[in-house]
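> tool_call: predict_assembly(chains=three)
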Amino acid sequence: MWSFFHKLASPKHFYRIAGAWIPWLGGITLLLMVVGLYLGLWVAPPDYQQGDSYRIMFVHVPAAWMSLFIYVFMAVCGGIGLIWNMKMADIMAMTSAPIGASFTFLALVTGSIWGKPMWGTWWVWDARLTSELILLFLYLGYIALQNAIEDPRTAARAGAILAIVGSVNIPIIHYSVEWWNTLHQGPTVTRMDKPAIHSSMLWPLLLMALAFQLYFFTLLLMRARVELLYRERRSRWVRELMGNLQPSPLSNNREVI
Amino acid sequence: MTWNEFIHMGGYGAYVWSAYGLTAIVLTWNWVSTLLRKREVFKALQRSLKQQENLS
Amino acid sequence: MASRPLSAFWAILRRDLLLAFRHRGELANPLLFFLMIVSLYPLGISPEPDLLRAIAPGAVWIAALLSALFSMENLFRGDFQDGTLEQIALSPQPLPLLLAAKILAHWLVSGLPMILMAPVLALLLSMPAAATWALVYTLALGTPLLSLIGAVGTALTVGLKRGGVLLTLLVMPLYIPILIFATNAVSAAAAGLPISGQLYFLAALLVLALTLSPLAIAAAVRISLG
């Protein structure tokens, strides 16, 4: 077990193992997504209150979950990189930020599209939408910091501190926004969630959530591999890897690498 | 359920499909941009490798 | 021997205060900034006393956030540029404690005057007396929090050329809970409601920040020094 993780921490082995996993992960992601979409959009009955508009939930809620999960994942990776000086953890933290930001953006926009038929306006300062907006700011701050620092090592360490401080603050922000919202919002606004969710709606939701999770990991591995190759461009294993390829058209060799 | 109902979504078609469409666009763009970056890095690496070969 | 870290703490505090008083002109800048932003509200929205009273808590607190951020930029910059910060980091005393001294000095010259000026601003925005007191209490608990959280961002961006805007991007989202609880306390006080809950929450945040943020700031300073 441990030797496997040690291997994964070495760039060369990571590159190889991740390369073998990506097609599988991607395939399962696609499968889950197709089944989830079929169940969610076709099989599940319309909601008795919200009609068919509730189906936005099947992308909105998983995106919102992912936005939180990825931020915490970023902080954990950053912490690992900070403590054990692991290059792979740095790369993981850095490459997951734009994916997390895109999920946050999706959660915001789909929430707003869902809000239009429910609330009558595109934007309401609802507790969850507001928290999500602040989370987007946190992501953008992290990305801006990464872009501002040239040295990748320093950027990773500075980003790790920011992500850790941010994730300590996330519960505080969430709680305070929720509290602020209950004070300012009248009872007229319909809450999006219901206490009990029927299984015909729960299954597509869980499948889509799992699909989004696997999508994230697939993409993360893909991006991490590319980033790793670039950062290690002067190392021996990368040169050997590239040297094996004849300088013939690139597209023929994609399977090999 | 018929195709017509499916597209119509009980009157919420525009909202539901724009939400799903946007999600599809963002998820696809994430994936495509990764592939583009990969190609860019590969080209750069191969170019530098070729230069080194020419030098030696 | 046991008193040595503390004496280093006092030495840094004294030095920073002395330095601040040598540049007395710059001292007033964040305060003027604070005053000007608050005076923009009546001009930009309406001089109507009722309306002003309603927006006053938010107006004063947003101005406080901005002027805290504005003054934050110089917290480590001078010491970073002339190498003092590196010397401080190399000293055998615990770095979080030494940096806490710097932050305390900074708060004494930038946060404390804001608290003292708050009653004047409350007058300008025609706030009732109870709300004025609430404003002073929330600023007393809130401005050290702003300094501690802001210092993390400052430490991360001190080595960068254009750190100013970046600092705002990094720190502003983290300031939101403080803004929410502080403005709510002031509004509640104006309406004659008890505010101890909000003050306790701010105090809890302050304790949390006092214990954790010096560690984060020290780590960030070491990263920025490379």
